[in-house]
Design a protein that fits this description.
Elements lengths: L7 H23 L4 H11 L4 H8 L5 H9 L2 H13 L8 H25 L3 H15 L1 H33 L4 H11 L3 H14 L4 H12 L2 H16 L3 H58 L2
């Protein structure tokens, strides 16, 4: 069945929708607010919850950003804000840009999918359009979730060495906050950034319990949450911090070794499927191919 030609009104509608979607997409990808205002809003919003962060960002947003925020459900805004916090708030992914992309990209994909369904009718075209539409709508969440997973893995990997540094600093005579500051200055990566930010929260007036609990909530790392809980209990019951750090560092090293052994044991299982699907068929063809040809020639 030949594909049906699009009527002129559908073509005009598609061109008009693309003309509206492309400028919005360009604004979402290329627009940059004033550098100083952006930095101030990010510094303020990092210490607040989703509702307070929305109030901080709203006055500095332009008209288009305000419209995009109003068109997005509040639950989606809070989910993106939470994912942004766990992803470390990348500088190139502000909340306004993600909200605009969450509206513009599905609109463009839906338009192109509608044109494709109109030109090639059938259940396969409709199913393909729906799949691409759903993926386009949840694309910002998927990107942030992937970024957050990479960040959690980096924090988990660097936690044992950081605790060793803090243990050495505390045993040398420094306080816990000073040891944390030294580990944050000397370290690199997301864990060092989170330690520095936690100290900044304490310096601006937050209690130590609130700052440590915020650290655990932002990173969402099980080992770091357990360490924060141990530090809070040591502070509450008067236990020596050096003993807690030494115990936690030893436990983190043991867990890191166990995770490495677990990954090493998973390698044979992961290799089975490529071996069976890619290597063994080629090997059988090379080894048994000549024999099969000889057998066929012998029975002719």
């Amino acid at each position: 069945m030949p594909p049906t030609a699009l009527p002129p009104d559908a073509v005009l509608l598609g061109v008009a929708a693309l003309s509206l979607a492309l400028p919005l997409l360009g604004w979402a990808l290329l627009a940059h607010p004033d550098r100083v205002q952006r930095q101030v809003r990010e510094n303020l919003a990092r210490r607040l919850g989703p509702a307070e962060a929305e109030a901080v960002e709203a006055p500095g947003s332009d008209l288009l950003g305000s419209v995009v925020r109003r068109l997005t459900p509040r639950g989606s805004v809070q989910r993106l804000e939470r994912l942004l916090s766990r992803a470390g708030r990348p500088a190139g992914w502000p909340l306004q840009r993600l909200l605009a992309a969450k509206l513009v990209v599905p609109l463009a994909v839906g338009l192109l999918g509608g044109l494709y369904t109109r030109s090639t009718p059938g259940p396969l075209a409709v199913l393909t359009t729906l799949v691409f539409l759903v993926v386009a709508y949840f694309l910002p969440e998927l990107l942030l979730h992937s970024r957050a997973q990479e960040r959690r893995a980096a924090i988990t990997l660097a936690l044992a060495d950081t605790l060793d540094q803090m243990t050495i600093a505390v045993e040398a005579g420094l306080g816990f906050d000073s040891a944390m500051a030294r580990a944050g200055r000397n370290g690199q990566g997301p864990l060092a950034e989170e330690l520095v930010r936690t100290l900044q929260d304490i310096q601006v007036g937050h209690s130590r319990r609130l700052a440590y609990e915020s650290l655990a909530d932002r990173t969402n790392v099980t080992d770091l949450r357990r360490f924060v809980r141990a530090v809070l209990q040591a502070d509450a019951y008067g236990i020596a911090v050096a003993d807690v750090l030494r115990t936690q560092a030893s436990e983190m090293r043991m867990k890191r070794r166990q995770r490495a052994e677990e990954k090493a044991m998973q390698i044979p299982v992961k290799v089975i499927f490529p071996l069976m699907l890619c290597i063994l068929p080629c090997l059988f063809i090379v080894l048994l191919g000549p024999a099969v040809l000889d057998i066929i020639a012998a029975f002719r």
